[in-house]
């Protein structure tokens, strides 16, 4: 069968902090993306979801140091520096950035911004590039004549579609989508969900969704990795995570998510994720965990299998039952 | 017994200035009808949700009630006494009784102010504080009621030292410090992490349950409404199209728009895929309101009558009193639609169409026809209509 397009192993990201207090933002994250996969990275703000993806794509600035291994089609791209990653970025791997309302340049037309990222093999006329941009817009459900429009002339949902069209320009095999529906209202959210769903099916595109919206995750993705304080604390099929979450953090996230027609009170999770500029002793979630015991402050639990294709990092529920 | 807040026939029309081209072509000025005859009421201890898409006029309604914009006409009564005149000046004496919580706690708090000065400022503005000690005591009380305990530890802090949830609680405390009887909360949780949303909304619910405060909650998220609101009013293009007790409306929505909004709520259970009714396009330009029922261009059930007759909000057959809708072809009652995305079949139509049309209430890959031409008026510059999603596949 097909091997993974993307293999990420033991990814670590540090940011330079003031006074040498470096922030360890991503701590040993590993995942694979195979053709057609639909993976979600889930967690609160500040848990390292976006940093993980930017680290994989080599898009973090000079203040970040990244270690680990990132392979595209078996080819190591992380240790080779930017030159190794550059051929894949916006080619096989592309990204829809967070905040579609601000991601586009306001003083240039949508078409010229899409044309800018088209692959430059050979000489392409401006007219041909705009025609291609129009085709990409049609693929995301917009009329081709939108190429002549400026971002402010489009609604939020259309701007998000334009960003998705731009990400498709290099005919990617893996599309990272960072909070693609945040700041859009429910109806437009559902439209964007349908679009991503359709693109994944039609183009055989693998999707890596970054979101804290478990509704979106459940409807779009088959697998999810729940991140907390820069680590994966649980990963598995979305159905398994919903029906039988094994990490208390995953369970509490689902309990905080409103569901239409469910007669249960919503619960918020008290506290906030820990600061990552000091070394953590024990389980990072223990301060907010309703089930924490003494041993949770002694050692950080490792990801261990709890069910087929389902792993959790918790002293209490990570044991094989 | 009069309602805490009673809004009658509120109208907010914006006149769009004519451009030179309009003058040359002798086109009349366009009028954008942002709020187009809204009546609603909120009682003490009641949480009423105003629901709709972006552009439906729900925030304009809130701003008109508070006099932040001057409505064209309409009556706003607080405890039975009508506010004389409309607009900011007339509102001033009433403001301390009606406070607002804004959507963005990152933008709405002055980053240079301490929590203490943010929460005490309304007292200074309204000259209610008394001495500095009395003001401080009131601020502490408001912070504690907003769930920031112990309040003393928060007083000297600045917004950047607080999490998003804590910031929103500070904003709520600044609203509570005047002891208002009505709070208007405009998407108070949508900028916050899912993990803290329940806390902020639960706080609003507690304030209602204490009996003195009524809350008008503005949101697009029906799942949230289902958990917290006593009643809801669904807005579309400046008008209320359906209203009633939350449970009654969500169990048997009468208006297809309400049903579509419910269907847009995404269920976290992957087994609950399918059965979504995805509305195409956007809310039409309120400057070019469609004839007949304003929803008919996006409605899968619209027939000829809907193109010509504009339905009024009124009681619906087979629905309890208090549940009303503005629809000529209301959905039949008698089936449960509480799980929004959970039905792969189309029981919605079983009662009204002999053979449910698969194009109208489709499986998840199909869409309501609203995304096709006609959804957006051509006058709008952003109005290039989405063709039916499901369109072209690149070779």
Automatic annotation (TrEMBL), chain A:
Q: Which Pfam families match?
A: ABC_tran, oligo_HPY
What domain of life is recorded for the organism?
Bacteria
Per UniProt, subcellular location reads as:
Cell membrane
ABC transporter domain location: 8-254
GO molecular function: any one?
Answer: ATP binding
Q: Give the bilayer topology.
A: Peripheral membrane protein
Sorted alphabetically, the keyword list is: ATP-binding, Cell membrane, Membrane, Nucleotide-binding, Transport
- Record-stated family: Belongs to the ABC transporter superfamily.
What name is this protein filed under? Answer: ABC transporter ATP-binding protein
